[in-house]
Amino acid sequence: MTASVPHAIREVLSSNTLYLQALKSGIANYTALAQRIKSDVETIVGSQVNVGTIVVAIKRFADILEKEKQDEEKKPITTHPMNGARMSLTGSIIDIDFDRELDELSNILDEVFEKESGYNLFQTNKQLRLFTEDIDEIRNIVSTASKKFDFKLKEGLSKITINFPSSTSYNNEQTPYNDVLSLVSDVLYNNQIPLYNAFFAPNETVLILKNKDAARAYELLRAKITKQ
């Protein structure tokens, strides 16, 4: 079965970068181009073809290319939710697990918040957990709190923080929540890295891991995020 003239012309022009670029940029002379590709078109079609017929087909093909270009320009530019994400790794994190409600701990926590900005607080109705850097000031507060409140303290932890651009939010199609959950799960699972705890917010993700796992997890996640 022989090819049609339009099909033959598309095949010839699409296979030649110079011809295709000339058409896309609008600088092609259709008659001169028709004369150049006439023999190639006739070989594909299997018969002689009038130059005028080739010129008409080239013009139609150029119109198709122009429409495709316009449609592409009309498409909204989408940015991957993780573009612009910043990561940080903090070592020497302790987990303070209180069994009392927040109201009873307000004075103690106020001291923590005054002395330490790099903390993360997780609260439920019956439990409050504070992840903060293991520094002398915090240790002194913990020592004071131990006389009044029951809690468990876990050492040897590190924190990976992933911050997203402030323009990213849940009310936006660029919500990173599901992407982050999927990415973190895949990286940790595929590399058999246990996750101690985690916190996911619209513009921030915090991962708590054991010290021995944190650096490796950080490098793997950073490499994955930069590819997004």
General description of the model:
- By secondary structure, this protein is of the alpha+beta class.
- The chain folds into 2 domains: 5-74; 86-226, VC0802-like.
- It is built from 8 helices and 6 strands, in the order H-H-H-H-E-H-E-E-H-E-H-E-E-H.
- A 6-stranded antiparallel beta sheet has the order 2-3-1-4-6-5, with helices on one face.
- Helix 1 (5-14) crosses helix 3, helix 1 (5-14) packs across helix 4 (51-74) and helix 3 (30-45) packs across helix 4 (51-74).
- It is rod-shaped.
- The two termini are 46 Å apart.
- Mean pLDDT is 79; it is low at 167-175.
Helix content: 40-55%
Sequence stretches where pLDDT stays below 50 over 5 or more residues: 167-175
Order of strands, widest sheet: 2-3-1-4-6-5
The number of distinct structural domains comes to 2
Rg from Cα: 32 Å
Profile the largest sheet: 6 strands, antiparallel
What is the mean pLDDT? Answer: 79
Strand residue percentage: 15-25%
Number of beta-strand segments: 6
CATH architecture label of the largest domain = 2-Layer Sandwich
> Order of helices and strands, N to C?
HHHHEHEEHEHEEH
> What is the first-to-last residue Cα distance?
46 Å
Question: What is the 3D shape?
Answer: rod-shaped
* Structural class label: alpha+beta
Write out the CATH superfamily name of the largest domain. Answer: VC0802-like
**CATH class group of the largest domain:** Alpha Beta
Total number of helices: 8
CATH topology of the largest domain: VC0802-like
